[in-house]
Amino acid sequence: MKCALVTGGSRGIGRSVCYKIAAMGYYVIVNYKTNETEANTTLGAIKEKGGDGETLQFDVGSKEQVQAMLGNWIEKNTDKYIEVLVNNAGIKDDGLMMWMKDEQWESVIRTSLDGFFYVTRLVLNGMLLKRYGRIVNVVSLSGLKGLPGQTNYSAAKAGVIGATKALAQEVAKRGVTVNAVAPGFIKTDMTEGLDENELKAMIPVKRFGLPEEVAHAVGFLVSPEAGYITAEVINVNGGLYS
Ligand code: NAP
Question: Nearest to residue 70, comparing CAs of 60, 83, 84, 80?
Fold first, then answer.
């Protein structure tokens, strides 16, 4: 069975990615950290449209939880292998560096950068054995350009971009591609507190993006036809920066 794992699939961009990948025929593992109700909503919508999947709770930034929950899933499901991985889980906790607390720095790095490492390391083995895999990391404009008030978030996302390019070269000959998608301002819970009316003035497309528009780019990168695209970062930011 064709199987995909989307981290942070309970809400926002991750939820749209789950829908997209389910529509491509994948059995989708919808990961979440705490929001079981929303994860079940994502799964319910997939099933309503004739797709299939399951929810799987773990904190991507916890080595122990990733090993226990995802490791256990892989061990138990020998009939399935995860051929598509979308590392989407992420948080922000903004503040000027001068006043940034250890916890703000550590939690943001742990979720995006450590999370990428713990989850990908586990899933990679199956892809290498089967000689096929698609990995897409959801990064950010912030990791390319750097945004003031986001030294923690910019560092985490820039770190994932570097890891994307390095890993892509390690695994290319085994049929595994590794790419990143870098959204700008997308309408989700993460950007809820931002003033779109004020910020859209600087976006050439003159609006925030939709989660489905990010999911479309992810869907393209995980398609079999995208096999010659690897170590790439696709911007989905309405022309804001490239
Ligand atoms: P969101 O609406 O806040 O959703 C975040 C998702 O990540 C939720 O499903 C959440 O699970 C999950 N999550 C958070 N920490 C986790 C952890 N430690 N382990 C497992 N799951 C975790 O965010 P979003 O806007 O969709 O963002 C998705 C990704 O896009 C993030 O990596 C973000 O940095 C990136 N991004 C977003 C924007 C934007 O404008 N929205 C722009 C650039 C990049 P729960 O529901 O259980 O909390």
Answer: 60
The single residue of 19, 81, 153, 241 carrying the catalytic annotation is 153
Which residues have CB under 6 Å of ligand 1?
7-8, 10-14, 31-35, 38, 59-61, 88-91, 111, 138, 140, 183, 185-186, 188-191
Mean pLDDT for 179-200 is: 97
Alpha-carbon gap, residue 60 to 113, rounded angstroms: 10
Percent of the chain, pLDDT > 90? 99
Separation of alpha carbons 71 and 66, rounded Å: 7
Residue 212 CA, ligand 1 centroid: distance in Å: 14
Residue 191 DSSP SS3: helix
pLDDT band at 242 (very low <50, low <70, confident <90, very high): confident
CATH of 2-236, one of 3.20.20.70, 3.40.50.720, 3.40.30.10, 1.10.10.10: 3.40.50.720
Q: Where do we find the tokens 């990791």?
A: 143
Phi, psi of 39 (to 5 degrees): -65, -40
Which runs of E-coded beta strand occur in the chain?
2-6, 27-32, 52-57, 81-87, 133-138, 176-183, 233-236
| Whole-angstrom distance, CA of residue 154 vs CA of residue 37 | 30
Expressed in angstroms and rounded, the spacing between residue 12 Cα and the centre of ligand 1 is 7
Catalytic residue list contains 81: no
pTM for this entry: 0.99
Q: Band of the pLDDT at 1, cuts 50, 70, 90? A: confident
